[in-house]
Amino acid sequence: MRENYTTVGDSASAEILIQKSRFIGHAARAETEQQAIEFIDSIKLRHRTATHNCSAYLIGEHDSIQKANDDGEPSGTAGFPMLEVLKKKGLKDTVLVVTRYYGGIKLGGGGLIRAYGKAASEALAASGIVERKLHHLMKTSIDYTWLGKLENEIRQSAFPLDHLDYTDGVDLYIYVPVEKEQEFTNWINELTNGQAKISIEDSEFLEFKLL
């Protein structure tokens, strides 16, 4: 399983006007090709009177699934530049659609490439870019006598505290990046003189917005 990667945040759209043509970029996350196709179809349905609905997507840890569709624009002037935007930004599991309403002025090959690339970039900016980091949810079991000190240290650390369970002792559930598992374990043992019991309860991705 991959540990860290970047993708889009929320689904979003952005519109630009170039030589009287409207270009509306749409971006969304798609973890399977079927999800990408469904998103593309939904945009086509919403903008069924548009001149073109061009698309591109990258899916998989090693970009094993990548497609670009010019939807009637000259070959290589729409879907491919959109795909290149995804690659240059290093995004994974992302689908783009750029809708064009033709305004009566031809842009030429170079103009189309720039227009579709810009519309794609604007859609991604509207969506926001996030980094997804794989974390272990670490259960740290301690005696009540350690709670004040340990909870205070954890809340001041870079490790997010998810919740606490009070039983015969106290169980603290803390998110720890997978690559820092040993560092975390050593730190907890040092704080508690080795009195804590530490185990991995689950693994999941946490998302962090990138500027």
Summarize the structure in words.
The chain has 211 residues and is an alpha+beta fold. It is built from five helices and ten strands; from the N terminus they run E-E-E-H-E-E-H-E-H-E-H-E-E-H-E. The strands form two sheets. Strands 1, 7, 8, 9 and 10 form a five-stranded antiparallel sheet that branches. The protein has a five-stranded antiparallel sheet with strand order 2-3-6-4-5, sandwiched between helices. The radius of gyration is 23 Å and the shape is elongated. The model has no long low-confidence stretch (mean pLDDT 96).
In a nutshell, what does this entry contain?
The protein is α+β, with helices and mostly antiparallel strands.
Spell out the key features of this protein.
single chain, 211 residues, five-stranded antiparallel sheet, 5 helices
Enumerate the spans where pLDDT stays under 50 for 5 or more consecutive residues.
none
Total beta-strand segments: 10
Note the beta-strand portion: 35-45%
Provide a count of the helices: 5
**Order of helical and strand elements:** EEEHEEHEHEHEEHE
**Rough outline:** elongated
Structural classification: alpha+beta
- N-to-C span: 26 Å
Topology:
Layout: E1 4-8, E2 12-18, E3 21-29, H1 33-46, E4 52-59, E5 65-69, H2 79-88, E6 94-101, H3 108-127, E7 129-142, H4 147-155, E8 161-166, E9 170-177, H5 181-191, E10 197-210
Antiparallel strand pairs: 1-7, 2-3, 3-6, 4-5, 4-6, 7-9, 7-10, 8-9
Helix pairs in contact: 2-3
